[in-house]
């Protein structure tokens, strides 16, 4: 572990001073810690979230419960958390899609499906099961549906952006031959401080005429990211293809290059599709952030659902176009095939962490440390991996100072919070997470 972590660390662009003062030795970490990579919030709460089984183990559709602990307790392996017996429910008919403020003092939630689907509210985090739900709420379902995809922007916890595409509809030419498949996209900005809708726009987002004639279309939008300049949103896409001969969804098809939609911000106007020639997977992620503005000012974006070439990390430069000279294949970096990034988080100074699975792993989940500058990756050792560990619904990581926090629990089995020192990669097993049959923990916030 020491040799591999040190090699990975020094191969990136991390500052020379850090490289000279950091190793995996616990003594070195205690005595020579560099300045924090990220801001530190003294007294920050770490909120643990668990998803309940509805009908099948691990489906997470029975609701979500949360419980908050101190950072000191989170890193203590002798401390136990049982979110299912002691936690508080958050409003959601299925798995809640949570976000948290940078300082951990507030949870943000948009109810997913059900009678209150699309309703935004906040929870003040007061420790333990004490979460004060806001009286001020706003429902965005009339614009973005009852199950909108959304994330907050990294703008000081001011704004959330929800996106949606209506069920795509087939259009035909005058001679009744197939023309295209399109849905109407909604992009909506939410003022999370004032609890109100700031703006929204709705429009079709066409592909090229050639691509549409073949049946390709945007099925879903997700994971919007604000660029460094603060004037564009980059929105991930999930692509599908209609069989022009039958009008049915093609079960398999030759994928186009990975695509994103760029819109002006804050107006949300002028949607433009950009295409990577490096990656061919979707860029929508699933239930968490999927793109990040890195220290170098560029956006790095993960891909999913490319069964041929696995997941890539793509680079979008500050002109808001894909940099096709940047090639980072997770398959190549890890030496496996068919990698799939379930969720990931940028941790600072070119380092990121991704939970993933791969072909032949039977959906078992793993954690990898990524160096975006060196385009290298390695599986994190020191984690209690298990055949029932599945990160398919994973949502939340916490980055605070030099510490990266992650919840690791196999379905129906106890697990732990793990805390990783970002500069060195040193792994510490933290608080025990007490589980129940069919349930799993889906994040820390």
Question: Top keywords for this entry?
Answer:
globular; 8 helices; disordered N terminus; single chain; five-stranded antiparallel beta sheet; 445 residues; 40% strand
Describe this structure as you would to a colleague.
- The chain is mainly β.
- The chain has a domain at 96-326.
- The protein is built from 8 helices and 32 strands.
- It has helices at residues 2-11, 16-21, 26-31, 71-74, 83-86, 141-144, 209-213, 330-334, and strands spanning 45-51, 64-70, 80-81, 88-90, 97-100, 106-110, 119-125, 131-133, 138-139, 149-152, 159-165, 169-172, 178-182, 184-191, 196-204, 216-226, 232-241, 259-264, 272-275, 291-293, 299-302, 312-316, 328-329, 340-348, 351-357, 366-371, 376-379, 398-400, 403-408, 415-421, 427-433, 440-444.
- It has a 5-stranded mixed β-sheet, with no helix packed on it.
- The longest helix is centred in the N-terminal third of the chain and has 10 residues, at 2-11.
- The protein is globular and about 70 Å long.
- The model is unreliable at 1-31 (pLDDT under 50).
- It comes from Flavobacterium fluviale.
- This is DUF4374 domain-containing protein.
- Keywords: Signal.
């Amino acid at each position: 572990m020491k040799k591999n972590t040190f090699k990975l660390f020094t191969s990136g662009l991390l500052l020379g001073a850090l490289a000279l003062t950091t190793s995996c030795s616990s003594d070195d970490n205690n005595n020579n810690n560099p300045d924090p990579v990220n801001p530190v919030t003294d007294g920050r709460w770490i909120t643990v979230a668990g998803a309940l089984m509805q009908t099948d183990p691990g489906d997470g559709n029975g609701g979500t419960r949360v419980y908050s602990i101190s950072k000191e307790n989170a890193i203590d392996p002798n401390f136990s958390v049982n979110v299912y017996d002691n936690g508080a429910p958050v409003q959601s008919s299925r798995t809640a899609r949570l976000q948290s403020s940078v300082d951990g003092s507030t949870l943000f939630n948009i109810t997913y499906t059900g009678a209150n689907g699309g309703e935004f509210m906040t929870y003040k985090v007061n420790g333990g099961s004490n979460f004060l739900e806001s009286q001020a709420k706003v429902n965005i379902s009339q614009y973005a549906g009852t199950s909108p995809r959304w994330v907050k922007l990294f703008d000081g916890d001011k704004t959330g952006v929800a996106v949606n595409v209506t069920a795509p509809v087939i259009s035909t030419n005058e001679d009744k031959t197939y023309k295209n498949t399109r849905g109407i996209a909604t992009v909506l900005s939410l003022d999370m401080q004032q609890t109100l809708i700031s703006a929204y726009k709705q429009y079709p987002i066409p592909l090229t005429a050639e691509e549409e004639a073949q049946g390709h279309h945007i099925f879903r939008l997700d994971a919007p990211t604000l660029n460094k300049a603060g004037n564009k949103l980059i929105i991930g896409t999930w692509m599908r293809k209609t069989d022009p001969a039958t009008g049915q969804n093609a079960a398999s098809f030759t994928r186009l290059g990975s695509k994103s939609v760029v819109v002006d911000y804050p107006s949300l106007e002028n949607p433009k599709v950009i295409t990577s020639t490096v990656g061919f997977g979707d860029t929508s992620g699933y239930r968490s952030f999927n793109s990040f503005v890195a220290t170098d000012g560029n956006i790095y974006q993960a891909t999913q659902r490319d069964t041929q070439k696995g997941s890539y990390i793509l680079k979008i430069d500050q002109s808001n176009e894909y940099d096709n000279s940047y090639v980072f294949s997770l398959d190549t970096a890890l030496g496996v095939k068919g990698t799939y990034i379930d969720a990931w988080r940028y941790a600072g100074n070119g380092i990121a962490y991704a939970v993933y699975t791969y072909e032949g792993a039977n959906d078992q989940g793993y954690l990898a440390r990524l160096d975006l500058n060196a385009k290298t990756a390695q599986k994190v050792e020191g984690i209690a991996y298990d055949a029932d560990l599945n990160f398919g619904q994973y949502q939340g990581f916490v980055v605070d100072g030099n510490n990266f926090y992650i919840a690791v629990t196999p379905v129906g089995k106890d697990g732990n919070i793990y805390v990783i020192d970002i500069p060195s990669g040193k792994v510490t097993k933290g608080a025990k997470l007490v589980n129940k049959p069919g349930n799993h923990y889906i994040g820390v916030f």
